[in-house]
Amino acid sequence: MTRALALCAYLLAVQAEPSIEVHIVAHTHDDVGWLKTVDEYYTGQNNSIQHAYVHMILDTVVRCLEQNPNRTFTYVELAFFVRWWRQQDDSTKALVKRLVSSGQLEFSNGGWCMHDEAAPHYLDMIDQTTLGHKFLMEEFGIAPRTGWQLDPFGHSATQAALLSAEVGFQGLFFGRIDYQDLALRKDKKEAEFIWRASPSLGSDAQVFSGLTGEYGGNYGPPSGFDWDAFSSDETIQDDPQLEDYNVKSRVDDFVKVAMVEASQTRGRHIMMTMGSDFQYEDAFTWFYNLDKLIQHVNADGRVHVFYSTPGRYVDAKKSEQVTWPLKEDDFFPYADGPHQFWTGYFTSRPALKRYIRDTSALFQVAKQISAIAGNPTSSEQQGLEKLAEAMGVAQHHDAVSGTAKQHVTFDYAERLAKGRAAAVTGISAALGRLTDARSSSEFSYCDLRNVSVCAPTEAVGKTNKRACFALWNGLGHEREELIELPVSTDKVEVVNGMSNQAVEIQLVESLQSLTNYGAQAGGAAHTLLALVKLPAVGHASYCLQTAGAPAPKAQLANISQGDCQAIENENLKLWFCAGMLANITDKLSKVSARAEQSWMWYNASLGNAESSQASGAYIFRPNRSQAFPVFTGLPFMRLFRGPLADEVHQEVGSWISQRIRLARGSRHVEITHTVREIPVDDGWGKEIVSRISTDLKNSGVCYTDSNGREMLQRKRDYRPTWKLNQTEEVAGNYYPVTTSLFIRDETAQLTVLTDVSEAGTGCVRDGEIELMVHRRLLKDDARGVGEPLNETQYVTPYLGSDQGRHYGPGLVVRGQHWLHFGAPATAARNWRPLMDRLYLPVQPFFGQGSPSRSFSAMQGALPPNLEVLTLAQWDDEHILLRIGHQFGLGEDSELSKPTSVNIKSLLVGATVISIEERGLAATITRAEVEQRRIAWHVEQSPVHPTPLQSDDFTFGPLQIRTFFVKIKRTDMAMFI
Amino acid sequence: MTRALALCAYLLAVQAEPSIEVHIVAHTHDDVGWLKTVDEYYTGQNNSIQHAYVHMILDTVVRCLEQNPNRTFTYVELAFFVRWWRQQDDSTKALVKRLVSSGQLEFSNGGWCMHDEAAPHYLDMIDQTTLGHKFLMEEFGIAPRTGWQLDPFGHSATQAALLSAEVGFQGLFFGRIDYQDLALRKDKKEAEFIWRASPSLGSDAQVFSGLTGEYGGNYGPPSGFDWDAFSSDETIQDDPQLEDYNVKSRVDDFVKVAMVEASQTRGRHIMMTMGSDFQYEDAFTWFYNLDKLIQHVNADGRVHVFYSTPGRYVDAKKSEQVTWPLKEDDFFPYADGPHQFWTGYFTSRPALKRYIRDTSALFQVAKQISAIAGNPTSSEQQGLEKLAEAMGVAQHHDAVSGTAKQHVTFDYAERLAKGRAAAVTGISAALGRLTDARSSSEFSYCDLRNVSVCAPTEAVGKTNKRACFALWNGLGHEREELIELPVSTDKVEVVNGMSNQAVEIQLVESLQSLTNYGAQAGGAAHTLLALVKLPAVGHASYCLQTAGAPAPKAQLANISQGDCQAIENENLKLWFCAGMLANITDKLSKVSARAEQSWMWYNASLGNAESSQASGAYIFRPNRSQAFPVFTGLPFMRLFRGPLADEVHQEVGSWISQRIRLARGSRHVEITHTVREIPVDDGWGKEIVSRISTDLKNSGVCYTDSNGREMLQRKRDYRPTWKLNQTEEVAGNYYPVTTSLFIRDETAQLTVLTDVSEAGTGCVRDGEIELMVHRRLLKDDARGVGEPLNETQYVTPYLGSDQGRHYGPGLVVRGQHWLHFGAPATAARNWRPLMDRLYLPVQPFFGQGSPSRSFSAMQGALPPNLEVLTLAQWDDEHILLRIGHQFGLGEDSELSKPTSVNIKSLLVGATVISIEERGLAATITRAEVEQRRIAWHVEQSPVHPTPLQSDDFTFGPLQIRTFFVKIKRTDMAMFI
What distance in Å separates the CA atoms of residue A143 and residue A921, rounded to the nearest whole number? Predict the structure, then answer.
């Protein structure tokens, strides 16, 4: 072939090649609080901090869509949309309904917020998604088809499997992945792929996933095509009458960008995310230029461009016969450059994180009580809604993540407090109905029990009143627990409210003295442990009352500081040497291991020679990989032995205290730490870790949970899908520990359950795990929040010259680590149920008068590997019931197996009229979820996903199934 | 009366007091070029310089007005509006017409731009206003009722009298007045007043005037109530469901602001200008909050607030029985603080200013020729429109003022160049028809005659062609002038094209050698002066042709440098000593005076101990009051004597040259200066003045013109309406000299006419006048333009890291000062007509072929004190004719008297069907202007304005009358 002929052939080939189809997805990313509170963002207040005014975004977008029926827009965060919707008049609502129905306005994600993927518990993710989806179904009759997680700082397996596939999303889009991963994916045309994230759920729960932001690790428009009103990018000037006509150069720029993007994925269709943080406040600017872009690029003809949405985009990708790469792990940790691991936020603002988790449990219980009591009043419903919305806001990826400004953090906490108060009013009324109590408002909740403050129990002995309480167990199994009650005197006892039988009790030292807050609020010096027994999903009634004799007290042992001492029960033996835990033995499996605990701190980098990156709210970067001991002296240790539990109390230097409790019969040990104000007078920010060094030979492998569901294997300096160039040997091996972390070897497994999300690892050094429980930093890490993570009691308002100054004492953090130790084969059957118990503690509601009769909503027992996850009133007709299989594939020889249960006969006291299986977010049927599944072609994998078990009520490992249960209540309270 | 009773009485009085009525005037102030070019502003380009996107302003405002019929908006600058209008589809146009017709959208000012009030010639102000008003009348059938000069840096008497009262404005609003004046006015409830600015026109031409911007010396919203999308002011949060509900505090804030504003003027009505520079790009944000403000403030009830417009506001003020203070002088100079006199911009960018003035003359002539020739083609009309629009843009208060960025200045110049070229094409065609020339495109214009470049005349002698030209006289009187023609050879002559009679000529040295530009462009070394005679409003034809003998040449006199030398003619004698003008004698009135000219420079302040204020584009601030001589040696002087004129050529140091010409029979002397690149290597910015020191005893009093009309008396360190605290003895006594400046005592008057606006004074030192002709500065003066006034040949584009860097040689400036000297009583009759001659020089259009016959459009002579100001085609039917009385009240014993003329018989060759008198901007009748007049009550003044003479064609002093003349053309060309 001559050269000329070759050229001709080439040109023909080029011409024949199908053109690139560019989907323009106009969108705005509206943080549900970050630099400003959610309401400041909505109402445009405090614009000096950040210009953002969501009300105006929705106002102008709707007008722009009305103006031109070709235009489309994608909205995401229902927290904002619902605020706006409630303010609209009927004609605007009718217009918006038309826009939604025509597809011009599409909701993607559609949760209350765009939740974080590291810190939230899976139930909070499900709840906040359901909250948004319920609104969308009720108002518009729609259920979003795509996930839209553009901004979260890493992406979880649970997001892909549960919050995408199981919700009924056909695609999941996000912006931030590791910079090395990103570069490789662009190279290998893997910017889009099939993500099959849960080994337990398998290919059924896979989702088509795509990077956004021109595959640039972000979610904005291509460089140079930001036409937000606040941008300076070159607009399209197509009026030849005026100077600087630039149609040709702008079209050329665009075609180039489209070609590059198309080269990084598969198929002809690509998506451009035309929008960014709080953009479209003046939607007219964007749409005017997009209209012109579309007009002129299509006239040029080299690529084809049009308004689209994530839903339409997935439809287009579906129509292409493309074989996709497969992704099976998750996207943690996220790094946006060398030394820049976003692993600090797994721990940032631990008190907010803990408050959210604590509230989550209360919320679950509140929903249960309301559903069971039935016939809620509107104020009860509003109370629950208020809490639901506060929790929805709190799951945002700058809320629970701990990456918001201080005053915003306070706002999150305030919303939760108000939500809790509102919900408790409702619970009180419902409990009143449920327990035949005289008044509907007589139950109170001791919000400050964590600092030993509880007026009803503290009053016992001071007055002649007793304190009776309904103790709610939200789990689907009977349960025996040690509960803690603050008491003012030792002459108290606890009796069962019905039988009047005294229960076993033990008096221990309360922890209130460790903080000023407890003492200031009148916290009790003593805590009464009481051993209580509770039915499944229900309550028993107990009363604290004065007794003739003092309660049995834990006795302070006479020990010699520094010597080795042991505590033990039927199952475990713990050795303490030099004041700290040194060894642990599982008596049953006769496994023993060195287990030396130490409290350490990393020196938060302020930037150094290697990199200017500082440690901050987002990023964890120790200035060197070796941590310093918090205290180099001998910790002061006390040992208390009592009939119900032994406790070791330790003072590790002047600002860390720890209580280790081993209860009678317990298979685990509870470590409660109190980290008081972290000293930073030396100019060094500090990141506090609890470390346990063992002789387990885990070879750099550890396991961390994904939002409390699947356990994921982690390996030192390793990523499953690419060869990692590791730049931070500690921070780069940190992972989110939302609920659990373990290391193991052939003989033993050490599992730590946390009561809150923490950054942790078991991969850095063999046999060693560490969990970061608190951080106090002095420099901002330049990811936007604009203040060092230096949590104090107060902050000045954003007015005048003294804006946002932090002052007052530093944050005190208390938390729990539950340790399980034993043979690997039997570990899961112990720690999996423990995980549920730690998440959902029993909740006492203190009544004014006499005890109520106890009951359970459950008829017969659930199989041990199933759990009731949600029991809530959905609407007038339906109870929403979620039941989950709580064991991962292969975790336990028996309990990981599929299990069946007869839902129909599960609940007490109601005639079940029908049961309908729903998608995870409940607004569509399970059948529709299945129908939405797309048979993607996947490399090295069967083409068709196998549907999950959907026969009558069988649950595969870690499967969650959601039901609408239509009942006829046989009583005012459904179950009684 | 008891105390309690007194309190009751007080409270009743307070309650009974009428509430304050707050007019919300939503508006945007859109600079027609400043930091960006007019098109950059319109299309949103270069937003990194300044975020501004006028297209979006108009788009969103219109949608907001459509949304709520209560909303109103005021738009001002037609340059932008017309750009937008031309891009709109029919439905948007129909909507806008509805909005205008309902009064929701009001145009205030309605000129092409918001013109500067210091630098523009009054005809340019009239033209640009007429251009905008014509559009508004044609498209919407409306004529603005108010003036809106919010931003210009001082306010002229001509603005009040001609461009307000005579245009038919019922109110004039502006923001910037001297800070001392402002404080006093607020104190004395004089923030609004009646401005009767022209002694000649009297109370007929008064206008109700008001300060804007909460009377704060600006034009924005009250502090804290800026709800532009780019602002951070607190929005109104009135949703009790959300946090930070702030209705009470916002209402309180607003009521307070309204009370304060109301206390500073008279009557119950006040106006708030809700908008500012380029605001309302997202109009939704503004209107949404204004809606809420109105709702909640009115619910509160302490003040009443509503959407309004300047027109509605004037109506409301009219309805109040209030007596107003009277203002009779002008608002120059403007200072916004001590040492901060905005008197630099009177001279800033002198070459741009001169180019605009030069183009103004060409524009007047172009309109005349087109109107006279009649039946213009559409390309002729488009040419004129292009020039009209370029001139409209150029009058903007950051254009001709010299306060725009360098690249914007280049854009203004480019627009003028393109406009001139387009108009000349039209003139050529019209002249073709008018002169029976064979082709309609054969006339060319020598744009570069100022540097002695003119291909047709330079070719004479090189080829055997002669250069015939139609020489246009735009004035309404016959005229004899010395014209300058660049010639390549001395063997040339000039003959009358019809009679072939040679005219008197004289060869002089051209000035092209003084700049590189002339030489580079092939400028001729010789200039031929020819004495030509021209009819009124018409042309004569002359030809330059080769001659057998050399033309008479000015002879270099043999003088001894430094000695005193004289030149003289019939009227004047000038003495030069030590190389510079030293003495001047008026031979007729036998008055003589010392008149020592010197070139001086002020050291531009970079800020000093007294004030940090630097001298810059806006502000003139010499670092000390004493100027330095440009050259301390003996200027090199040459003296040429010739038959038509004597010339003195001087070199004042290395970078200033000067030519002083005294023509035979002339009553004035012409000084042409060339200021080449001002050296600034010493780090000192320099402001160059020509100073003439005389022994006139003017006692600190001088007179400067107001835009070329009324002469205003100025006094040293004095303002007519308040006791000035003077902080700058030079800059604070500088005034705009748009065309003329004089000082006088009982025996003599020295008048200087300028060919361009300049900063000048005759008040600083007795007997001394100075005019600033050039400035080169090294520091920005912090008033927004953001670059030092350091004009160079090039500037880098606003891209990348090298944005807006100035480079290349510094600006060269050439200009003329015409000096008249004589007895005060007869001064005006000389300098007033000279002012017209200097403004409107005769214009040669060079034809390709044979000479054309000459003609005049005037039938009979105009009275000597009247002048034809505008003669233009208005529409298919009407000729627009403006005639002005050119003498101020009392300036001349005879010529200042009212004069009559019969308009009907004024014009040649057309049957006048009707004559209708119009307002100054021509779109409404004179009767409507009169009808719009409001009989304001004025302190110490008759209540009713006396209408101007409106009988048949009588003109009072300085009166301008505007007519529609409906004619029947008797020939293809109207007048021939």
Answer: 9
CA distance B180 to chain A (A): 29
Task: Give the model confidence (pLDDT) of B623-675 as tens digits.
Answer: 999 999 999 999 999 999 999 999 999 999 999 999 999 999 999 999 999 99
The chain B residue lying nearest A45, using CA atoms, is B234
Contact residues on chain A for B284, CB-CB shorter than 8 A: 56, 59-60, 63, 282
Q: Cβ distance A320 to A269 under 8 Å?
A: yes
CA-CA distances (angstroms) from residue A276 to A73, A83, A147, A235?
13, 20, 16, 17
| CATH 2.60.40.1360 domain extents, chain B | 859-975
Cα–Cα distance, A426 to B624 (Å, whole number): 79
Taking the C-alpha atoms of residue A827 and residue A742, their distance in angstroms, rounded to an integer, is 10
pLDDT tens, residue by residue, B156-199: 999 999 999 999 999 999 999 999 999 999 999 999 999 999 99
Residues of A in contact with B47 (CB under 8 A): 231-233, 235
| Beta-strand relationship, B749-754 and A768-776 | unpaired
- E strand or H helix at B822: strand B813-822
Contacts of B258 by beta carbon, 8 Å cutoff, 6+ apart: B20, B22, B270, B272, B303, B305
Locate the chain A residue with the closest alpha carbon to B55: A285
- What letter represents residue B628's amino acid? F
Spatial distance between the Cα atoms of A784 and A789, rounded to a whole number of angstroms = 12
Q: Does the reported pTM lie above 0.90?
A: yes
Q: CATH 2.70.98.30 in chain A, residues?
A: 555-796+804-837
Q: Which residue has the tokens 């060319």?
A: B444
Tally of residues, chain A: 976
- Pick among 3.30.70.270, 2.70.98.30, 3.40.50.300, 1.10.10.10: CATH of A555-796+804-837: 2.70.98.30
Give residue for tokens 């053309």.
Answer: B969
Task: State whether residue A141 is helix, strand or coil.
Answer: coil
Pick the CATH number of A859-975 from 3.30.420.40, 3.30.460.10, 2.60.40.1360, 3.30.750.200: 2.60.40.1360
* Residues in chain B within 8 Å Cβ distance of A63: 63, 67, 284
Distance from CA of B38 to the nearest CA of A (A): 9
Q: Cβ contact (<8 Å) for A43 and B239? A: yes
Beta-carbon contacts of A488 under 8 Å, excluding residues fewer than 6 positions away, are A458, A459, A460, A461, A462, A524, A525, A526
Q: What is the pLDDT of residue A483?
A: 96
Q: How are beta strands B645-652 and B572-577 bridged, if at all?
A: unpaired
ipTM of the complex: 0.90
CB-based contact A790:A778 (threshold 8 Å): yes
Beta bridge partners of residue A463, listed in sequence order: A460
Cβ contact A232–B51 (<8 Å) = yes
In this complex, the residue of B40, B53, B235 whose CB is nearest that of residue A43 is B235
CATH topology of domain A11-319+327-345: 7-stranded beta/alpha barrel (3.20.110)
* Residues of chain B with a CB closer than 8 angstroms to some CB in chain A: 37, 39-40, 42-48, 51, 53, 55-56, 59-60, 63, 67, 83, 86-87, 229-235, 237, 239, 241-244, 246, 281-282, 284-285, 288, 411
Q: How far apart are CA A220 and CA A215, in angstroms?
A: 10
CB B552 within 8 A of CB B563: no
| Residue B908 in tokens | 């040649």
Best to test chain A binding among B32, B68, B242 (most A CBs inside 10 Å): B242
Q: Taking a C-beta distance cutoff of 8 angstroms, is the pair A50, A35 a contact?
A: yes
Distance of CA A189 to the CA centre of its chain: 31
Tokens 């000129």 belong to residue: B111
**Phi–psi pair at B622, nearest 5 degrees:** -70, 145
